[in-house]
Amino acid sequence: MILLLLLGFGAYQWQLARQPISWLEFGLKAMLPTYLVVRLIQSNPDIYTLTCEPTIICYYCLLAASVLGRSALLQATALVLCLLSRYSVVFWVPFFLWVLWREVGPKHALVVTGLTGIGVLGLYVMPFLSHDWTIFTHALSEY
Questions:
Q1: pTM (2 decimals)?
Q2: How far apart are CA 133 and CA 29, in angstroms?
């Protein structure tokens, strides 16, 4: 798990280093994820040892790095990872796509939408949901 966390932090910091910002701003933005994780572990040490939270933190760092990098494939991959790790992210997807539409352009936003749809279909719907369409509703009722 620590390797995934380092991968997420590294990708975020690498993309951050490519931005035209001051050293002070870079230092503050680079230390923010680490600070938050340290504070999280200090307040609840079991969250790191007994759960998969570091993996999910890695996915969100990859999403932040992909937004800074502007690659449609990396954005869609990171978004799929976030969606499959926490389904509640689905409520933020329209806002994320609207920001891409506005900042990068409609074509880019549509490519990210399509790649994300293909990723969710290929990694979740086809292998799992297509065998038993009630899995999703049963999982929600158990949650």
A1: 0.71
A2: 43
